[in-house]
């Protein structure tokens, strides 16, 4: 867990700090610039922690089971529970991630459609590709990735 000073910062100063943080991190032209800034600002542990938190919320929105989230992301069930409460109160990050969910659901639908058109074992279908597509579809339904 990260440590901060026990002396609280004034609210006005804190607002300015967050504004500066957003201007530094949020206003980037491409992902390369963003990664460079994040790599300079955050330690590897902090980067992984933030990425896992976003992934937990993403998978909870997709209604992936708690145990599967814990297994894939190597987090405790209490961490997943903490973020499931965030999901219930409709925080702004939920609204941001729902746009990604729609794209992801379309991809899942397309994958299932291909599996019904070209199932493994059907004459004239490349069995290897069909089985890989079917396994990927099942994995995405179970684990969300």
UniProtKB/TrEMBL annotation:
Entries under Pfam families matching the protein: Trp_repressor (PF01371)
Top-rank lineage group of the source organism: Bacteria
Listed InterPro entries: Trp_repress (IPR000831), Trp_repressor/repl_initiator (IPR010921), TrpR-like_sf (IPR038116)
An annotated Gene Ontology molecular function: sequence-specific DNA binding
Protein name as it appears in the record: Uncharacterized protein
